[in-house]
Design a protein that fits this description.
mainly beta, Thiol Ester Dehydrase, Chain A, 6-stranded antiparallel beta sheet, 9 strands
């Protein structure tokens, strides 16, 4: 896997087996693209594969990268921790029954609406040319 554009640890609050992103390819205040490789340590691993519901978390973490990037820009590079987020799933469509282990996944998340502390993000994950699922999230900043 190629080098990440930014240290993933600076942009994703999840740690251990919940940190699903391996690299950040693109990011700005409106969108982010991240890469992952599935392992048996991932949540929702069962019967030799990953349940596609994990795509919700992939899209959420990728949207979080964009939110964190925006926060760092706002504070002129200081990596201060911001407030919390309340995230809801507005819509999710899973296009595969399972995701194999050692799969290279690319997840894209894009802000489709924003007003004050509320935003909506649309995202999808794909494995090569195969789209795995699509998710729309509602995000409320609590700071």
């Amino acid at each position: 896997m190629n080098e990440s554009l930014f240290p993933v640890e600076d942009y994703v609050i999840q740690r251990g087996r919940m940190m699903l992103l391996s690299a950040i390819d693109e990011v700005d205040e409106a969108m982010a693209v991240a890469r992952s490789v599935t392992t048996t340590d991932w949540p929702l691993f069962e019967n030799g594969a990953i349940n596609p519901i994990v795509i919700v978390e992939l899209v959420a973490q990728t949207a979080g990268v964009s939110l964190r990037w925006e926060e760092i820009q706002k504070h002129k590079g200081r990596k201060e921790k911001g407030g919390g987020l309340i995230v809801g799933v507005k819509k999710a469509v899973f296009l595969v029954p399972a995701i194999p282990i050692d799969a290279a996944i690319v997840t894209c998340s894009k802000k489709t609406y924003g007003h004050m502390e509320y935003a909506e993000y649309y995202g999808f994950s794909k494995m090569g040319d195969t789209r795995l699922g699509e998710v729309t999230l509602q995000v409320l900043r609590t700071n």
